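Q: I'm building a small set of examples for a reading group on sequence design. Run inverse folding on the following structure and report the sequence directly after it, with nothing in between.
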């Protein structure tokens, strides 16, 4: 007697649907993979393929599993790719038992645009970021992405995936600068060409009134790229700076003593007693009381932090356990630093992450998936960690800061003129 097929033993199922550019964005393949990886099976009930590249596609699937627990695990996985249950119900909410205590089975957010169905209306989730809760305000009729640290007792927290819709980013319909180098991280890529396209994208974004953030590590100073970054800030291309104590300290050290970690930037040779220079730099800022006051006092006369203060560009310096000093402007409370990052990433259309893994991850955790992200590091594995965030909007550039930033500054000047106010985006890259 012939054995029945495996799927006959599948006792439970739910129907889901997907809509949009689900084929060329790879979403359909990811959904199939997740179902099979979790030991489930699927049956395609309806599959309507868009006839032109601008036309959306539609798929309706029956997802089968051995038991309810396995089925819920599968649905939770594919939900993050935009697959939602056919029979749309309203969200389930439960009050938080106490401050920072989530209800059992709470919904954990992605960094994709998200909506929840509440009292017959689809509410957009405000300030979306990954790995947070969704809190519903019944009186206002609103939904807010809320980090665990901000969760208060009796907040109405969304539980389960029912009534939650996720809209993952899709591949753009038209070729753009960000499509040019999309794909795997590799050092075998034309860096100058990529940088030229990044510059074109920055100019175009600024021409539309967009906001650009930069996350920087101390290697920017060590590799001699401080002048280039200062020039980029001075020309108006950076609207907010995210860094740690080290970048600011060594930038100030370089301005005061010409060294970075005791090494003469011009000659590349260590300076006798130079290992103390960064401590002297911190002490000089301490004497004034802040970086801004040190600039007003004439102690600091140039550099990255100088340009930020002079142009009224906000900066968030998040501290770490290994910091010397730190500078008086450094935020030593990690939760406060997170809140500052969240406040300042709001409205960013692009973020450059240059030569700092940990600070880049911190900022990246607060970014929605639609923000264009340029990740620059000499280590390809660091780039992979930064880019593996489920977004189509990331470019990885294998380069050291000392090469990337001077070339970027050069391209911004060539393509955009001396300032954003005088520049315009070139068209020959499109």
């Amino acid at each position: 007697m012939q054995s029945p097929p495996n799927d006959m033993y599948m006792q439970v199922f739910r129907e889901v649907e997907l809509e949009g550019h689900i084929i060329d964005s790879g979403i359909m393949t990811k959904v199939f993979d997740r179902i099979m990886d979790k030991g489930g099976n699927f049956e395609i009930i309806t599959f309507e393929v868009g006839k032109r590249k601008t036309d959306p596609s539609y798929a309706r699937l029956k997802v089968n599993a051995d038991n309810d627990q396995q089925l819920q695990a599968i649905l939770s996985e594919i939900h993050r790719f935009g697959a939602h249950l056919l029979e749309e119900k309203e969200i389930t909410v439960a009050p938080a038992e106490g401050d920072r205590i989530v209800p059992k089975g709470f919904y954990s957010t992605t960094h994709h645009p998200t909506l929840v169905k509440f009292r017959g209306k689809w509410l957009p989730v405000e300030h979306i970021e990954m790995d947070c809760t969704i809190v519903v305000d019944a009186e206002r009729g609103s939904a807010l992405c809320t980090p665990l640290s901000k969760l208060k007792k009796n907040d109405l927290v969304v539980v389960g995936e029912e009534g939650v819709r996720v809209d993952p980013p899709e591949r753009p319909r038209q070729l753009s600068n960000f499509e040019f180098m999309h794909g795997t991280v590799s050092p075998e890529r034309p860096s100058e060409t990529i940088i030229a396209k990044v510059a074109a994208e920055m100019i175009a974004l600024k021409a539309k009134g967009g906001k650009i953030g930069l996350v920087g590590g101390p290697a920017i100073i060590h590799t001699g790229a401080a002048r280039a970054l200062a020039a980029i800030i001075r020309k108006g291309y950076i609207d907010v700076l995210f860094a740690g104590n080290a970048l600011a300290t060594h930038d100030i050290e370089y301005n005061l003593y010409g060294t970075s970690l005791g090494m003469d930037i011009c000659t590349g040779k260590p300076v006798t007693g130079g290992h103390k220079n960064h401590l002297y730099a911190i002490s000089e800022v301490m004497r004034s009381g802040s970086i801004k006051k040190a600039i007003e006092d004439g102690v600091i006369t140039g550099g990255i932090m100088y340009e930020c203060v002079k142009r009224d560009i906000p900066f968030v310096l998040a501290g770490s356990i290994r910091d010397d000093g730190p500078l008086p402007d450094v935020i030593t409370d990690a939760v406060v630093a997170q809140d500052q990052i969240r406040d300042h990433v709001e409205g960013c259309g692009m973020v450059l992450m240059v030569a700092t893994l940990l600070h880049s991850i911190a900022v990246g955790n607060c970014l929605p998936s639609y923000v264009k992200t340029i990740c620059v590091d000499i280590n390809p594995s660091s780039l992979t960690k930064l880019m593996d965030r489920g977004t189509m909007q990331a470019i990885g550039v294998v380069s050291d800061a000392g090469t990337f930033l001077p070339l970027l500054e050069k391209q911004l000047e060539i393509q955009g003129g001396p300032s954003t106010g005088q520049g315009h985006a070139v068209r020959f890259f499109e």
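The chain has three domains: 1-87, 88-173, 177-416.
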